[in-house]
Specification:
Strand content: 5-15%
Keywords: Kinase, Membrane, Phosphoprotein, Transferase, Transmembrane, Transmembrane helix, Two-component regulatory system
Distance between the termini: 51 Å
Number of helices: 12
Number of domains: 3
Helix content: 55-70%
CATH class of the largest domain: Alpha Beta
Structural class: alpha+beta
CATH topology of the largest domain: Heat Shock Protein 90
Strand order of the largest sheet: 4-6-7-9-8
Pfam families: HATPase_c (PF02518)
Order of helices and strands: HEEHHHHHHHEHEEHEEHEEH
GO molecular function: phosphorelay sensor kinase activity
Protein name: Two-component system, sensor histidine kinase YcbA
CATH architecture of the largest domain: 2-Layer Sandwich
Length: 424
Amino acid sequence: MEWNRKNVENLILVTMIITFSGQIYLSPLPSVFRLSMAVAALTVTLIHFQKLPVMLVCGTIAFTIPLFRAFVDYMSISSVGFIQLFWIYAPVAIYYFSYGILFEFLQIRKKLQSPMLFMFSLWFVDSFSNLMELSLRQLLNRTEIGDTILQIIVIGMVRTVLTYFLYNTTIYYIERYDRSLKEKKYRETLLFLSRLKSELFFIRKSITDIEEAMKESYSLYRQLEPGVFKEQALSVTKNIHEIKKDYARVVEGIEKTLAGEEDFSLMSIREIFELLKENYISLADSKNLEIRFVFQCRTNIMTSEYYPLVSILNNLIINALEAIEEDGAIVVKSYQDKDYYHFQVMDNGKGFDPKDLELLFLPGYSTKYDEVTGKMSTGIGLSHVKEIVENHFSGIIQVDTLHQKKWTRFWIQIPVKRIWEVAS
């Protein structure tokens, strides 16, 4: 074993787990001989922490378990000395040394793929090691073990089954936890990339706008008579050209970065909904908001355009979330109607002033501000949505109110051919 910090920490952790679990036990004899859960914990940890040498773990446990048991008894039985108590429990060391030798010799770690062989081998190791300890105690104390051998064998079988069950349960929850972390990381990455691609879309649009401004500036330069203003117009044109080149370099850098993230995979609308739902339930909980999320996908299709779709829905759901002060509901629906695929995002938040309807999708329009600094929001979200829907998807976005103006609805219609890949 390599003596690095991680392995040392694992050894300490394993020692503590096994030592404490040794206090859960049965005593088939009226003596200090015990059948404890330390063995189950030992087996599980030896299999899970494969970099830890078997004999190192068993040797450490052979010392710590009698030491800890003596300490516990010493604290409760003051009439018996600590050293005397330690020697009373010391024969348990023969069990763990025998267990380690047989565990290594029979290569128990390699038998996991064959459950019956694994359990039979473990049963033999456990029972033989218990008999070794019991035999040593018989020699030291001159006691008769009688029918205890049969009890040890039966209890060893039960403990082996419990150990196998404990191991599989532990692995299940570890894998489940790892899977949840990976899913969370995947959701965060997808949302991040969707936002980045959305910003990239607008940087490209800005480059086009800058190019138009440069053309107009140069046209103005050519129309002006020689003089100060003509020189200023030329200077402005050159500066605009430099800005355009800087933007182009930024776009190129981002595209190269994103090239490694592209996998050209497909996602279904239902998968997008599940991703968004889990993300926003967590977000609402973190803000102590009582919000009911309803996602309904009536027509499930596969699409490679999931980044811009996630960006659109993400902006609309955030907008709905921020419109709800304490409790409410957000409903997201999707369905296909002939040649169009429809998305609807509805909320029963505070809504908007009807007089502002024509301003909603304009860059800079916002009713949101930072409660601490008082700084207004940039008001870019809805203008982003409109640009992506209309220019990227050739679609339509509308906003209206429902149920006596208690609900706000954003309604998006996108030509099916722009997002459809394979019917699910």
